[in-house]
């Protein structure tokens, strides 16, 4: 069960060597690389880094400057806002993507739930690859994911508003 309060520890991640067979085969199954060729995905993976975080280590803090997006390759990451648990990211999930796209501050904190391996790529690394046509497909896949998360958030807001309105009517 996920912790419901934020208790991340400060710990430095360890960079993991890129294993083309293991990591590429995993990445090819992810929605972020949908419609891309093996060589294109390998190129993106080589531009980024694979980082291993110990259990309960903080990946980033709410309010800190962000410029990287992260994809969970192995493990789980708990997301906290204002110290309260709001979500868990599992294998194949992405987080930090908004800060990577707009270089803004993180709207939440991310903490490795257990030993976790993440693929990360920075805004600058993405920018440097923009001349590659396949990067547009990668970015479109990220935009689709953000769009899906926005739809989920809108549905939750609508549900909560209806629930609040029905309580107000009953009072």
Strand order of the largest sheet: 1-2-9-4-7
Structural class: alpha+beta
The arrangement of helices and strands along the chain is: EHHEEEEEEHEEHH
Output the radius of gyration. Answer: 17 Å
Q: Give unreliable regions as ranges.
A: none
Rounded mean pLDDT score = 85
Count of helical regions: 5
| 3D shape | globular
Number of strands: 9
Helical residue percent band: 25-40%
In percent terms, what proportion of residues is strand?
Answer: 15-25%
Give the termini distance in whole angstroms.
35 Å
Biggest β-sheet, characterized? 5 strands, antiparallel
Which helices and strands, and how do they pair?
Elements: E1 14-16, H1 20-27, H2 38-47, E2 49-53, E3 58-60, E4 68-74, E5 77-81, E6 84-89, E7 94-95, H3 97-102, E8 109-112, E9 116-122, H4 123-128, H5 133-170
Antiparallel strand pairs: 1-2, 2-9, 3-8, 4-7, 4-9, 5-6, 5-8
Helix pairs in contact: 1-2
Describe this structure in words.
With 171 residues, the protein is α+β, with helices and mostly antiparallel strands. Helix content is 40%, strand content 25%. The protein contains five helices and nine strands. The protein has helices at residues 20-27, 38-47, 97-102, 123-128, 133-170, and strands spanning 14-16, 49-53, 58-60, 68-74, 77-81, 84-89, 94-95, 109-112, 116-122. The strands form two sheets. It has a five-stranded antiparallel sheet. The protein is globular and about 60 Å long. The mean pLDDT is 85.
Brief account:
It is built from five helices and nine strands; from the N terminus they run βααββββββαββαα.
């Amino acid at each position: 069960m996920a912790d419901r309060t934020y208790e991340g520890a400060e710990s430095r991640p360890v960079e993991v060597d890129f294993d083309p067979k293991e990591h590429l085969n995993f990445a090819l199954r992810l929605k972020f690389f949908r419609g891309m060729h093996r060589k294109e995905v390998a190129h993106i993976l080589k531009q980024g880094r694979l980082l291993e975080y110990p259990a309960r280590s903080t990946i980033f803090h709410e309010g800190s400057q962000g410029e990287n997006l992260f994809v969970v390759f192995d493990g789980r990451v708990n997301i906290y806002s204002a110290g309260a648990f709001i979500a868990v990211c599992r294998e194949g999930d992405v987080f930090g993507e908004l800060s990577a796209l707009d270089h803004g501050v993180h709207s939440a904190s991310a903490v490795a739930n257990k030993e976790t391996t993440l693929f990360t790529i920075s805004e600058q690394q993405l920018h440097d690859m923009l001349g590659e046509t396949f990067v547009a497909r990668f970015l479109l896949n990220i935009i689709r994911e953000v769009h899906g998360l926005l739809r989920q958030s809108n549905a939750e807001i609508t549900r909560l508003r209806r629930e609040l309105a029905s309580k107000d009517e009953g009072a």
